[in-house]
Amino acid sequence: MGRGRVQLKRIENKINRQVTFSKRRAGLLKKAHEISVLCDAEVALIVFSHKGKLFEYATDSSMEKILERYERHNYTERRLVATDPESQVNWAMEYNRLKAKIELLQRNHRHYMGEDLDSLSLKEIQNLEQQLDTSLKHIRSRKNQLMYDSISELQRKEKAILEQNNMLAKQIKEKEKTMAQQVQWEQQNQGPNTLSFLVPMPPPCLKMGGIYQEEAPEIRRNELDLTLEPLYSCNLGCFAT
Prior knowledge:
A two-stranded antiparallel ribbon has the order 1-2. A hairpin with a 5-residue loop joins strand 1 (about 45-50) and strand 2 (about 55-60). By secondary structure, it is mainly alpha-helical. The protein is built from 5 helices and 2 strands; from the N terminus they run H-E-E-H-H-H-H. Helix content is about 70%, strand content about 5%. InterPro entries: MADS-box/MEF2_TF (IPR050142), MEF2-like_N (IPR033896), TF_Kbox (IPR002487), TF_MADSbox (IPR002100), TF_MADSbox_sf (IPR036879). One of its GO terms (biological process) is positive regulation of transcription by RNA polymerase II.
């Protein structure tokens, strides 16, 4: 004989209610996983306990994508019935939906910042850690790509500057060579006589009295003549005495 039908009503005993909640929650999550695998369906399950603790399950497409798809679907249906006089109710539902979405985003943001983690289970914390690791890998990959692009740009600029410097140095050498050839050509056309003015003349040598060296021999000769005559007369007088 089969088991009788159990009447559905609230369990008054707190312990029995908690045990039943844990069992039924585990069975519900299992059934959600089974239907997602067997039927290839996208399943999103959200459960809040009487203490406000969150339990959720979502397929590989993640909870956010399923909720966005659900919102788009509802928005399309609401547009079809926009002429309904009950549009005020629709706006109230839209307000509640957006409010719930904002609360979900705020809660996820707090979790990503490492806050309000007491309500999470070990598995949820592990999932959160995995999400953060994946995000950190993407951030580091993007940073490395930006650094590689910056280094490549600097190397390209360096190469362009080196090429410009080599070109300028080559132009300077060609200009110097042209100027040297032009000076040599002018010297050959002008001849040796016209180049004598280019040879620096030695400065005239001066004596102590400011007399040029070229006039010095005759002046010295006159001075010797003047000095010898008194000496000669003096010697003759001495011999005479």
